[in-house]
């Protein structure tokens, strides 16, 4: 009887591991993680402000996720934040493309939107995207609005 109980435990354990393994494969395929491991190339972009951007943040083209942020580092000479973007080999961007930090709404997270240009040459692996727009702080925009309203009220 002890042997039958051990076999039953072994089969249940194997079934749990199989289900966990299939769930892991399904979730990594849906997140693009498998595509990142299988290749792609990196592009660089230096932003004055990368508020809300970190490793793993989405990189999108036309709203469709095409990659992830592989690293974010401060350049000590320029004091710009340099982001390395991992893009699949199947997507080639023109050399005059732009990188903008966008927000998913007032309470949503941020992502990097790539806007393809029209140049005949493409960016090569390791190239830098020159046309960038950093993150816009909603708090600083609200403070500017409040300051402008206060100065208008003071001038009347």
UniProtKB/TrEMBL annotation:
All copies of domain Mce/MlaD, residue ranges: 40-117
Q: Name one Pfam family in it.
A: MlaD
User: Out of the domains of life, which is the source?
Assistant: Bacteria
Alphabetized InterPro entries for the sequence? ABC_MlaD (IPR030970), Mce/MlaD (IPR003399), MlaD_Phospholipid_Transporter (IPR052336)
A Gene Ontology biological process noted in the UniProt record is: phospholipid transport
Protein name as it appears in the record: Phospholipid/cholesterol/gamma-HCH transport system substrate-binding protein
Species assigned in the record? Paracoccus lutimaris
């Amino acid at each position: 009887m002890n042997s039958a109980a051990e076999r039953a435990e072994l089969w249940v354990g194997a079934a749990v591991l199989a289900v966990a393994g299939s769930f892991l494969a399904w979730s990594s395929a849906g997140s693009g993680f498998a595509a990142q491991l299988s290749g792609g190339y990196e592009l660089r972009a230096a932003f004055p402000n990368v508020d809300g951007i970190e490793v793993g943040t989405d990189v999108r083209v036309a709203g469709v996720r095409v990659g992830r942020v592989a690293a974010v580092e401060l350049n000590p000479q320029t004091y710009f934040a340099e982001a390395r973007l991992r893009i699949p080999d199947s997507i080639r961007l023109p050399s005059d493309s732009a990188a903008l930090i966008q927000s998913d709404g007032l309470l949503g997270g941020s992502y990097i939107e790539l806007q393809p240009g029209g140049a005949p040459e493409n960016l090569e692996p390791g190239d830098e995207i020159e046309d960038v727009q950093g993150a816009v702080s909603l708090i600083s925009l609200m403070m500017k609005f409040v300051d402008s309203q206060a100065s208008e009220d003071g001038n009347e």
